[in-house]
UniProtKB/TrEMBL annotation:
NCBIfam families: ManoateDhtManD (NF043051), PRK15072.1 (NF011654). It comes from the Bacteria. Residues 128-256 form the Mandelate racemase/muconate lactonizing enzyme C-terminal domain. It holds the Pfam family MR_MLE_C. This is D-galactonate dehydratase family protein. PANTHER family: D-GALACTONATE DEHYDRATASE-RELATED, STARVATION-SENSING PROTEIN RSPA. PROSITE patterns: MR_MLE_1, MR_MLE_2. SMART domains: MR_MLE (SM00922). InterPro entries: D-mannonate_dehydratase-like, DgoD-like, Enolase-like_C_sf, Enolase-like_N, Enolase_C-like, Mandel_Rmase/mucon_lact_enz_CS, Mandelate_racemase_C, Mandelate_racemase_N_dom.
Length: 401
């Protein structure tokens, strides 16, 4: 089953998405998501200029061999751009293989390990009253797990607060500068949990994203302060690239820890998993080498009692979400899937078989991924340069965003 064409489409139906389309001689088409928020064109060029020409003429059924060929053959291994490009190829080939077999992808991955994929939604508010209203809105929609983010008093802007609709941080053609001060946040975050537990009790799962901003000591203090409110997890408490930081933090708190949305290979996860320094690994199919590589990460995690909790922000396209849901349904050690949802006119470009009901998602039964990409419609939504913010402390020092 020879690949006859591979092309990249960058479009912005609500936000920028990079989509790889692969075609075979027997008329099958597969799609992969290669979006890297704020660095979209780097992956588009990597694919267009260096990968697509190598794909033409290859057998689309040789998924593992193509993965090894692109990973080892580049010599320059890993990194977000390379791994997002490889992921897009991998997912497109799995999509084609599913379509050729006439089966939804999760069945090729061993079949469903569960009836549905538990997901968490994003509740946020400029005040605790607004946050409580948004939690209620999510419960009314059927969510049984919600992430809490609220504006920190004393800071002009705070990570994770939605304006209208879904939170979208990549909002300007030059990075917007946000303010941060860990001491203000540390005083506030436990009060946020206290309020929501008081209003809603302990049946709903509550999650929170620290977004890489604390030192291990500060994170230990936060984890300990949150323990009475029993968070489902505390995400990215310290910058994820230093695994040894988690050893210190782990000794200070039993609050479960989730890390890994910025990782792009199993090597980034290895120490955190094998030393049991985390509870949930958050790598995404589209950023960590596709389904082929994510399966390995999930298997390694399973050995050490670590569950998966894949990244699912709106900057991962519906193609990514579909791929995640197929894998989530199949792997034995899923924890929970992030579901931020997508906004804007994205449904004019992507149609999908996946569904949400009563706190669970399902990838659907269409062959392959179950996502159709309308290239003609995509042309109506050209790329718009938009960047994630940069953080500065109140004294002006650049801080982790
Ligand atoms: C999350 C993430 C996102 C990221 C975004 C960056 O947990 O969903 O932290 O909100 O900030 O994906 O592009
Ligand atoms: Mg996050």
């Amino acid at each position: 089953m020879k690949i006859t064409d591979a092309r990249v489409v960058v479009c912005s139906p609500g936000r920028n998405y990079v989509t790889l389309v692969v075609e075979t001689e027997d008329g099958l088409t597969g799609v992969g998501d290669a979006t890297l928020n704020g660095r979209e064109l780097a992956v588009a060029s990597y694919l267009r200029d260096h990968v697509c020409p190598l794909l033409v003429g290859r057998d689309a059924r040789r998924i593992e061999d193509t993965w090894q060929y692109l990973y080892k053959g580049a010599y320059w291994r890993r990194g977000p751009v390379t791994m997002a490009a490889i992921a897009a190829v991998d997912v497109a080939l799995w999509d084609i293989t599913g379509k050729a077999a006439g089966m939804p992808l999760y069945r090729l991955l061993g079949g469903a390990s569960r009836d549905g994929v538990p997901v968490y939604g994003h509740a946020s508010g400029a005040t605790l009253d607004e946050l409580a209203e948004d939690v209620q809105r999510h419960l009314d929609l059927g969510y049984t797990a919600v992430r809490l983010q609220a504006s920190v008093p004393g800071l002009e802007t705070t990570y994770g607060i939605a304006g209208e609709g879904v939170y979208e941080p990549a909002d300007a053609p030059r990075p917007h500068e946000a303010a941060w001060e860990s001491s203000l946040y540390l005083d506030f975050a436990p009060a946020m949990f206290a309020r929501i537990r008081e209003d809603f009790g302990y049946r709903v799962h509550l999650l929170h994203d620290v977004h890489h901003r604390l030192t291990p000591t500060e994170a230990g203090r936060l984890g300990a302060a949150l323990e009475p409110y029993r968070p489902f997890w505390m995400e990215d408490p310290t910058p994820a690239e230093d695994p040894s930081a988690f050893r210190a933090l782990r000794g200070h708190t039993t609050t479960p820890i989730a890390v890994g949305e910025v990782f792009n290979s199993i090597w980034d996860c290895q120490q955190l998993i094998t030393e049991r320094l985390i509870d949930y690994i958050r790598t995404a199919v589209s950023h960590a080498g596709g389904i082929t590589h994510m399966r390995r990460i999930a298997s390694l995690a399973e050995l050490y009692g670590v569950r998966t909790g894949p990244h699912g922000a709106g900057d991962l396209s519906p193609v990514s979400l579909a791929a995640a849901l197929h894998l989530d349904l199949a792997v034995p050690n899923l924890g929970i899937q992030e579901h931020m949802g997508h906004t804007g006119p994205y449904t004019e470009v992507f149609t999908h078989a996946y569904t949400f009901r009563d706190g669970y998602m399902h990838p659907g039964e269409r062959p392959g991924l179950g996502v159709e990409f309308d290239e003609a419609a995509a042309e109506c939504f050209p790329y718009e340069p938009r960047y994630l913010p940069v953080n500065r402390r109140l004294d002006g020092t650049v801080h982790d965003w």
